[in-house]
Write a structure and sequence with these properties.
The longest helix has 58 residues. The protein contains 11 helices and 12 strands. 31% of the residues are buried. The two termini are 44 Å apart. 53% of the residues lie in helices and 18% in strands.
């Protein structure tokens, strides 16, 4: 049964609304003031809240603000009911996150119409979110099955060779087999890190609020040094490829969530290492453009898959499971999402045709 919480200090009106809702088949619960209503909202988790604005102890605006910062209660549809009909009051309430505004006195039909509209909209959002999570989970399972298979096979073969021919294996051959094992191990760890980040992004545990509340100030050089070290662990084909810097101001200070942004940039740099020509370096450059920090990651070579990258950044279908683009789709998708949470952007420079250039824009006052 759909549960609706009615918060209003006017007893006659509150009881009338509760009677209407009960008659219509809802489970109706009443609260006599804002403080009581807030406690009931958190404990009962109703499907919808109707709240008066002007109340003693705690007004409706304060109730809504408190619910908005509560992870369990902030998605609940919220309708204000008030005698204040000034447009500024309405705009203020909607800006706080209210879903609708009922001006007293309102008819039974207006009340029920507002309730049904908000419940239906909330139901559509929930169904859409569940569908998106289902699609995301299926994508992660497919990625896991595809990406883990190759390194595990290589590690298994290396282990078998070492066990069967240990006494007859030359040092150089042993080093090669251990290198294969180490590369496979790094690849699996990287994939697991990607899956953890993806799951946290989809669940909302990493969102814009998380980034804003967990920021620190770091120098550009410290950030990029960490990015390069991490990207060498992520790269499959050329982890020791040459990386060159062209920085306007390496001591520039940037405010960011260090762990997430470092991971995002490392995904981009590792991709550049893997798809760059063996005799060409990856070039990381930086300039200040108005109030933005612009970081450019460029690689040269024929296996750059610029069109594939373009499709990924624009959320278009692409062949992500080919040998050339292994790990590319999930890594760049994560990078783009994390950079967006920093109020930045990730773009492909289509004017560069000798390889691939990805451009990251970040606000200096993030």
């Amino acid at each position: 049964m759909t549960r609706i919480l009615v918060i209003d200090d006017e007893a006659p009106l509150r009881e009338e609304i509760l009677d209407i809702l009960s008659f219509e088949g809802f489970e109706a619960v009443g609260a006599t003031n804002g403080r009581e209503g807030l406690d009931l909202a958190k404990s009962l988790q109703p499907d919808l809240i109707i709240c008066d604005v002007m109340m003693p102890e705690m007004d409706g605006y304060a109730v809504l603000k408190a619910l908005q910062v509560d992870d369990g209660s902030h998605p609940i549809p919220f309708i204000f009911s008030t005698a204040k009909s000034d447009n500024r009051d309405v705009r203020f309430g909607m800006a706080l996150g209210a879903d609708d505004y009922l001006t007293k006195p309102f008819t039974h039909e207006e009340l029920l119409s507002a309730i049904h509209v908000r419940l239906e909209r909330h139901s559509r959002i929930i169904n859409f979110t569940r569908q998106e999570l289902h699609v995301g989970n299926e994508k992660l399972i497919r990625t896991l099955a595809h990406e883990v298979k190759n390194p595990l096979t290589a590690m298994k073969l290396s282990t078998a060779l070492i066990e069967s021919q240990f006494l007859h294996t030359l040092p150089a051959e042993m080093q090669d087999m251990m290198s294969v094992y180490r590369t496979g191990n790094n690849r699996i760890i990287h994939l697991l890190q990607q899956i953890v980040f993806q799951a946290r992004l989809e669940s909302g545990s990493i969102d814009a609020r998380f980034v804003a509340h967990n920021q620190c100030v770091t120098s550009l050089w410290a950030l990029l040094t960490g990015v390069v070290n991490l990207s060498r662990n992520f790269a499959y084909e050329r982890p020791q490829g040459e990386i060159m810097f062209d920085l306007d101001d390496q001591e520039m200070q940037i405010t960011c969530n260090l762990d997430t942004l470092r991971h995002a940039l490392a995904e981009i740099v590792s991709n550049a290492l893997d798809f760059s020509s063996s005799d060409q370096p990856v070039v990381i450059s930086q300039i200040k453009q108005d109030d933005n920090l612009v970081i450019t990651i460029r690689n040269y070579g024929t296996l750059t898959e610029a069109q594939t990258i373009k499709n990924i950044l624009h959320n278009r279908p692409t062949k992500r499971d080919t040998a050339k683009s292994k790990g590319l789709g999930l890594g760049l998708t994560l990078a783009q999402h994390i950079i967006t949470l920093h109020n930045g952007s990730l773009q492909l420079d289509e004017t560069f045709t000798d390889g691939t250039t990805l451009v990251v824009h970040l606000p200096l006052n993030a």
